[in-house]
Amino acid sequence: xxxxxxxxxxxxxxxxxxxxxxxxxxxxxxxxxxxxxxxxxxxxxxxxxxxxxxxxxxxxxxxxxxxxxxxxxxxxxxxxxxxxxxxxxxxxxxxxxxxxxxxxxxxxxxxxxxxxxxxxxxxxxxxxxxxxxxxxxxxxxxxxxxxxxxxxxxxxxxxxxxxxxxxxxxxxxxxxxxxxxxxxxxxxxxxxxxxxxxxxxxxxxxxxxxxxxxxxxxxxxxxxxxxxxxxxxxxxxxxxxxxxxxxxxxxxxxxxxxxxxxxxxxxxxxxxxxxxxxxxxxxxxxxxxxxxxxxxxxxxxx
Length: 302
Hints:
72% helix; disordered N terminus; mainly alpha
């Protein structure tokens, strides 16, 4: 009887162990079927999710405007040629340099009153960029596809403004037989608009980003850091404003630095935080109030 009891006990023990092992295996199988939760709210993103996003980014076809061009014809051959793109970049750089010469040496308000050399240069640049835009337009298989290309729309706006200033305004002035072109345009409001339009041409240099990938990486880095910088500047503004109120309340009305809250903020910002830039910013603001925010944007970017 004792041997029979021992044998039965061993059998029961063995069955119990098998039951536990089976339960563990079933639990492990059920656990493996449960999808892993993403690391939501954690410091680092889920590694597998990041890998999957990287794979999808590599598999996604890159946008190339030449995919929408004709495959045959002399127009598309010109538009796809590397000399066409590189020569256009050279013309953009030359136009940007010429704008500095025009700003320093050309005192005429309108093109018809300028010296001959300035008229030749402006008409040459306008003719080339118009021709370059026309080549790119006729290279599209579907002309509506040009509206999908952001660079084409951007260049179209610049060329339209350039043609308006260089040719349309000149034709209007010549047709009006006016001795003074600036007098025919009014009291100066239209002339200021014309100067702003001329300054917008410098934005064409943004096309250089396409040919220099390092600049694109820098711009993307600045965009990624813009939120943090904006929050820091906002906190900076709050601190300056609070201390400007304190100094204004504690200072007499005839104070040299804190006679008003705006003046106190300006002095705290420039003379207290940016003392090396204070003379330049204040002197520029004395000439034109718009130079103050423009100088501050330049300092923040540079």
